[in-house]
Amino acid sequence: MIRRTGGFVLVGVLVALVLAFGVSRFASSEPDGLEKVAAEHALDAGEQSHALADGPLADYSARGVDDPDLSTGLAGVIGVLVTFAFTGGLVLVAVRVGQREPTIEAS
Amino acid sequence: MHIPDGLVDAPVSIAAGAIAVGGVAVALRQAGKDDLASRAPMTGLVAAFIFAVQMLNFPVASGTSGHLLGGVLAAVLVGPWLGSLAVTTVLVVQCLLFADGGVSALGLNIINMAFVPAFVAYGLFVVARRLLPASRTGVLAATAVAALVSVVSASVAFTIEFALGGNGAAPVTTVAVAMVGTHVLIGVGEAIITTFTVGAVFASRPDLVHGAKDLEPTTLVEAVAA
Predict the structure, then answer these.
(1) Which of B15, B66, B72, B99 is the most buried (most CB within 10 A)?
(2) B197-208 pLDDT per residue, tens
(3) Among B57, B85, B208, whose Cβ lies nearest the Cβ of A27?
(4) Does A14 contact B at CB distance below 8 Å?
(5) Is B31 in contact with A95 (Cβ distance < 8 A)?
(6) Which helix (H) or strand (E) holds B64?
(7) Chain A within 8 Å of B41 (Cβ-Cβ)?
(8) Of the candidates B57, B83, B41, B32, which has an alpha carbon nearest to the alpha carbon of residue B198?
């Protein structure tokens, strides 16, 4: 007996949306562990700027939104929804393809 | 913990990309083998949640922050195959949409943040569960240990990649000490967030915690029936 997950998933996605929209503005903007070590020990001497640094959501900011909190929050909301759809869709496709593959049958 | 473009040279980055593609292909096949269609929404949720929490950098020391990696969280909730896929899709979205983590370093980042936590650290979770009591507390303790170790092992994986093809001149031992020292602290944050989240899912829907399936009464009933 498998219980339904729809309600749980819906609540979970809402929690993720609240975190991405409302809490992201309180995140530390200090460099993370890797960035810090890379800067301290000059590992980043050959670092290049990101190939997609001009994208509309680059660096978690929605382009054209002036308020920084709102800009980050909107970028976060888009990210949560895209990630949910992309991941769920990928798993669904993997299952469909997996079921279509010929299986060795005992005949 | 996202490696930008140009920290690690092209040959090592390309090799890592090939390993990542192969690993994802295997994980997709494994996901497709079983009837896991019902797990697709849950895997999507796990990925979406990890994306959101990765935005929430927490301070760990003066001038340094850390963020959740989420590999152990994903593996404990949906298993290592789907879990590694969930973190991989997060990394792909971050790289392509948010310019976080270099395009050329995507393979490296998938190895460090998806594969190492979801397989190496999750392996430790499985071992720890055998040593600990078969209870909710046992599951959460194993989760905490694996989460802490996942961040440290990801920092070791980066150090190995730096040793193989790093573009900096710093001695490998110096980088290893700095990486592990910083990431032990970040690992404590990872353990707290991961254990809290698994505990919250356990409290509301224990049947949705893959790593605690053996504790489920329904599983026991099925085992008896079989």
Answers:
(1) B72
(2) 999 999 999 999
(3) B57
(4) no
(5) yes
(6) strand B64-66
(7) yes
(8) B83
Q: Taking each helix axis as running N to C, give the angle between helix A68-100 and helix B80-98, from 0 to 180 degrees, rounded to the nearest 10.
A: 140
Kindly determine whether residue A91 and residue B208, on different chains, have CB atoms separated by under 8 Å. Answer: no
Asked if A88 contacts B41 with a C-beta cutoff of 8 angstroms, the reply is yes
Percent over 70 (pLDDT), chain B? 93
Q: Say whether A32 sits in a helix, a strand or coil.
A: strand
H helices of B99-211, in order, are: 106-110, 122-131, 136-165, 172-204
Q: What domains can be seen in chain B, in order of their start residue?
A: 10-225 (1.10.1760.20)
The H or E element spanning position A45 is: none
Contacts of A5 by beta carbon, 8 Å cutoff, 6+ apart: B38, B41, B42, B205, B208
Structure tokens at A53: 């640094």
Q: Tell me: pLDDT of B193 over 50.
A: yes
- Residues B69 and B122 sit within 8 Å (Cβ to Cβ): no
Domain borders along chain A are 6-100
C-alpha separations of A68 from A26, A61, A62, B63 in Å = 11, 7, 9, 21
Are B179 and A33 in contact, with CB atoms under 8 Å apart? yes
